[in-house]
């Protein structure tokens, strides 16, 4: 498994880079999802579960972005999926140039790659990742039950920028105060069109609905 260091892109217009990357990926038949959330909310665990549940249907690759360490990419690689660890040189988000470098180094952009669905696990943070286009076709975010149902009030931008919200760790509901209906109301007020799923990556609850949705997205 490769670990690469990427620096902030030197190009002036990240939005143009993002548009070019989206088009390049489309021409190669790769659908890229940018997965955002706070650290520890369950990104790597959710991706692992998605890979396990979908691997007999589609080929998945993951670009794991972090400030340091390579534990996440190792977990994904252990499941047999294409993965690469990208270190962000201290930056708390990925931009389109950094994402392209990760995909390129992972081999996702090779003509022979045959990857249909790629995920960028963005740096764990509810603020900066929402401010930068990555070149993904779809922004997905996670909010976990232990984080609390007030996060849409505190970090509205990421909820506005996401097309899908996955509320995860629903198995921990007995131990936390989290009003799912109230949370959904808060999120829909910011973003009426967002698709919301309630899952547990631990027990598998809600995963079939989420995986069916992902298959529909890429087709
Ligand atoms: N109970 C429970 N724990 C979970 C679930 N998903 C993730 N976790 C735990 O949450 C912690 C952080 O998960 P991780 O996937 O590394 O989060 P990341 O930092 O967002 O990638 C780990 O201890 C996971 O086992 C879940 O659905 N239910
Ligand atoms: Mg992770």
Give structural attributes.
219 residues, Rossmann fold, 8 strands, binds guanosine-5'-diphosphate
Question: Which residues form runs of ≥5 with pLDDT under 50?
Answer: none
* DSSP helix fraction: 25-40%
Overall spatial form: globular
End-to-end gap: 29 Å
The CATH homologous superfamily: P-loop containing nucleotide triphosphate hydrolases
Order of helices and strands: EHEHEHEHEEHHEHEH
How confident is the prediction overall: mean pLDDT?
A: 96
Strand-residue proportion: 15-25%
Number of separate structural domains: 1
Major pleated sheet: 8 strands, parallel
Give the CATH topology: Rossmann fold
As a whole number of angstroms, the C-alpha radius of gyration is: 16 Å
The tally of strands reads: 8
Which CATH class is shown?
Answer: Alpha Beta
Q: Provide the list of bound ligands, each named once.
A: guanosine-5'-diphosphate, magnesium ion
